[in-house]
């Protein structure tokens, strides 16, 4: 008997746990961006809640998921699926085979694509509709691929999970999606990882960034066109250039394909400091976000806005845009701005000039962030799985 068959034979028949779910985590990137934090948070919460869960993973992630979700069954996929094309091919054949081997009642594909002939009901997470509403912000091949995957999932999946009402409404408006098959499941935030930092945490991050004794504004996220980083840079210049002690701007996160960022950086006056430290360690994120004067995230549109929620959980004063899902996340606990550089500069300057307003936003952000839990997200996912299995 193989290991997978053994796991299948030992599976519980307790109907109260719902269908056995095979969650495909093989698409999670090594850098643990937004998709990775979604899958990680969901897996841990599902397992903690007693779900009958099997997690398919990259081999390099297997031990991580075993530690994160000891109650789940973790099954590594073949070594070749580290390559994207091989993973997509395996998804069509190997994933349905794994579902059969482990006795899964439902497959959950958490990132747009899924097997076309799965043999069991499939639930797919579609994270946003911006591939349709903002096509100019994506490389042509990537946009074409994800638009096709979105349409296919809407047509073939038993249930589609979306992270916000705004995303649900966009899919209905743009693609005539069936609203009775769409389930909204907000993301949560790990409040052990993202928390209001103490002075020591803030000081450690400042020292690593070379900002001892200096104030700064923070951005954390993928540096791609949709995130609007060039206009953030230009807005910061407008807000900071004439100040006696101007704050630095720290743009953290992975590099993207936005060439306009380099052009905006070339316009920065020499007396202003702009830092691009790349990825920061998870342990440094509370100090980085919570230690900033303002966390700015002037995105053109988000399916959810996890970076905004994570900054809120660190007690940050957040400035973002009222686009798509972002008001669902931020509510009255964040400040809003436009997408153009002049408006961003005006609203950044207003926050820099108003410490009491920043303190008020940070307090409200902490309170609101605690309303978004992975436990609640897991419960919404379990309801979607049950609906899929019963369909």
What can you tell me about this protein's structure?
Helix 13 links the parallel strand 12 and strand 13. Strands 3-2-1-4-5-6-7 form a seven-stranded parallel β-sheet, with helices on both faces. It has a six-stranded parallel β-sheet with strand order 10-9-8-11-12-13, with helices on both faces. The chain has 391 residues and is an alpha/beta fold. It contains 16 helices and 13 strands. The N terminus is likely disordered. Helix content is 44%, strand content 13%. It folds into two domains: 203 residues, Glycogen Phosphorylase B (Rossmann fold), CATH 3.40.50.2000; 171 residues, Rossmann fold (3-Layer(aba) Sandwich), CATH 3.40.50.2000. Helix 9 packs across helix 14 and helix 12 crosses helix 15. The two termini are 32 Å apart.
Briefly characterize the structure.
The chain is α/β, with parallel strands linked by helices and 391 residues long.
Just name the CATH architecture of the largest domain. Answer: 3-Layer(aba) Sandwich
Shape: globular
Summarize the main sheet: 7 strands, parallel
Helix content, binned percent: 40-55%
Strand order across the largest sheet? 3-2-1-4-5-6-7
The CATH superfamily of the largest domain bears the name Glycogen Phosphorylase B
- Per CATH, what is the topology of the largest domain? Rossmann fold
User: Can you tell me the CATH class of the largest domain?
Assistant: Alpha Beta
Any idea what the radius of gyration is?
A: 22 Å
Beta fraction: 5-15%
What class do helices, strands and sheet pairing give?
A: alpha/beta
Give the low-confidence spans: 1-15
Write down the secondary-structure element order: HEHEHEHEEHHEHEHEHEHEHEHEHEHHH
